């Protein structure tokens, strides 16, 4: 992790402002969701949210089905398993 040298104060509502230059460099736009993590040393880590597969945590080829994120690879494996089960019936 590299330091930016930027310091911000928390306001009375618990908010901080991310500098425009940082948002632009990280392609963070208004209303973009950010994930919040707490590191082992107590540091707060913000990361732009990227949906991941509920089965394998891959972020590639995500399809949202009934509110759940599934990657194409796992979707194909599920389809193959379902067709195999149908053949057994």
UniProtKB/TrEMBL annotation:
Gene3D superfamilies: 2.10.260.10. Keywords: DNA-binding. Residues 5-51 form the SpoVT-AbrB domain. The keyword DNA-binding applies. It holds the Pfam family MazE_antitoxin. GO terms for molecular function: DNA binding. PANTHER family: PTHR36432, TRANSITION STATE REGULATOR ABH-RELATED (PTHR36432:SF4). This is AbrB/MazE/SpoVT family DNA-binding domain-containing protein. It comes from Caproicibacterium argilliputei. The lineage of its organism: Bacteria, Bacillati, Bacillota, Clostridia, Eubacteriales.
């Amino acid at each position: 992790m590299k330091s930016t040298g930027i310091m911000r104060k928390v306001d009375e509502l618990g908010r901080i402002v991310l500098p425009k230059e940082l948002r632009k460099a990280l392609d963070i736009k208004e209303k973009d969701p950010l994930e919040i993590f707490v590191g082992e040393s107590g540091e707060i880590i913000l990361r732009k949210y990227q949906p991941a597969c509920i089965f394998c945590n891959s972020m590639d080829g995500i399809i949202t089905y009934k509110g759940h994120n599934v990657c194409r690879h796992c979707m194909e494996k599920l389809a193959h398993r379902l067709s195999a089960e149908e053949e057994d019936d």
